[in-house]
């Protein structure tokens, strides 16, 4: 009579806790944000006033609009260095078209189309011609701003404050500017696209395992091109709003803007090498860059110090990003051996 061996015990996979699933970089930057608010709130009496918070929301708005689109770009493992130049080009184009007597509605459509066009150029060259996005956008950054400078001969083009486009820059609702509300709507749309749609899943998948996504039948080149087009469109919106807010279009607008946007996205916890994007993190990152500039100004610190501080913070964020990846890989290897 044979004796049957007892069945092997069933091993249940451990469900990762909420803390294990959380983006540690985003949580760390949330802590930094709170610390900055507390620090500047103590150092500057009017920092936490409603008027300054409203002003801060307006200052952050344009950065946040482009940061939403840049989150998609960086999550796919790409980068766009031309957004600052696109802002300048669209701002100049908006002012020139209004000066020529074009209707505001047509100008708005043309401005957004211009941004979308430059995004499509970047996307086609990077996704379909296989030129590294860093090289493509570095080149178009120079070309686009050069065209804006050639168009205006280096002069600023004023906008009649009575026109509808100009009034967008002055409009307020519930104490906050129209720019802040547009930025909020952009964040909501971007968050839904990234977290709740098939497109967002493709974006995350391409950044982490592009070949696997491609073998699943997804046109990865088209997805990558669309993300760069979104960045161009967002830069077009930013250029239009910049002209509306300042009441003029200048080829010098957006100098160093790409650094601020990339800093905001990476600071928030989006992986610089792709595969992990967080819209909440991009909001936090944009707020951090805005708070640094706003707080230092209220403290009477030289404005020339702001880009230095922003650059140092970005460097620290990239270092933490790399360290986090290294520690995660090490932890995975150790768990794999046990």
From TrEMBL:
Q: What is its main location?
A: membrane
Provide GO CC annotations from the record: plasma membrane
Keywords from the named record: Cell membrane, Membrane, Sugar transport, Transmembrane, Transmembrane helix, Transport
Q: Which InterPro entries does the entry mention?
A: ABC_transp_permease
Q: Where are the transmembrane segments?
A: 25-44, 56-74, 106-127, 134-151, 171-195, 225-244, 280-298, 304-322
Subcellular location per UniProt equals: Cell membrane
One Gene Ontology MF term: transmembrane transporter activity
What is the membrane topology noted in the UniProt record heading this document?
Answer: Multi-pass membrane protein
Instruction: Supply the name of the protein.
Output: ABC sugar transporter permease protein
Please give the organism: Actinomadura verrucosospora
């Amino acid at each position: 009579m044979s004796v049957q061996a007892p069945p092997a015990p069933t091993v249940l996979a451990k469900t990762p806790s909420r803390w294990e699933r959380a983006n540690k970089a985003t949580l760390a930057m949330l802590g930094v944000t709170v610390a900055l608010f507390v620090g500047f709130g103590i150092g500057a009496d009017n920092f936490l006033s409603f008027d300054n918070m409203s002003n801060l929301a307006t200052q952050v708005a344009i950065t946040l609009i482009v940061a939403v689109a840049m989150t998609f770009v960086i999550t796919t493992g790409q980068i766009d260095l031309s957004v600052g130049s696109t802002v300048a080009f669209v701002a100049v184009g908006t002012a020139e078209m209004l000066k020529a007597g074009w209707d505001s509605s047509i100008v708005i459509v043309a401005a957004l189309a211009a941004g979308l066009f430059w995004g499509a150029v970047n996307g086609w060259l990077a996704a379909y011609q296989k030129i590294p996005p860093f090289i493509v956008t570095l080149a178009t950054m120079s070309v686009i701003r050069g065209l804006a400078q050639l168009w205006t001969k280096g002069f600023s083009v004023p906008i009649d404050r009575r026109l509808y486009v100009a009034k967008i820059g002055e409009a307020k609702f519930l104490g906050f500017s129209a720019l802040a509300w547009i930025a909020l709507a952009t964040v909501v749309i971007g968050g839904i696209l990234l977290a709740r749609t098939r497109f967002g899943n493709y974006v995350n998948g391409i950044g982490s395992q592009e070949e696997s996504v491609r073998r699943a039948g997804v046109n990865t080149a088209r997805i990558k091109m669309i993300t760069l087009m979104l960045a161009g469109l967002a830069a077009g919106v930013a250029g239009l709003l910049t002209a509306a807010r300042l009441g003029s279009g200048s080829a010098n607008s957006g100098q160093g803007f790409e650094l601020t946007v990339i800093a905001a996205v990476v600071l928030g916890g989006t992986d610089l090498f792709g595969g992990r994007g967080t819209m909440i993190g991009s909001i936090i990152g944009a707020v951090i860059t805005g708070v640094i500039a706003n707080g230092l100004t209220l403290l009477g610190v030289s404005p020339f110090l702001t880009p230095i501080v922003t650059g140092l913070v970005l460097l620290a964020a990239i270092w933490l990003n790399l360290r986090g990846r290294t520690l995660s890989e090490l932890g995975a290897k150790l768990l794999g051996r046990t």
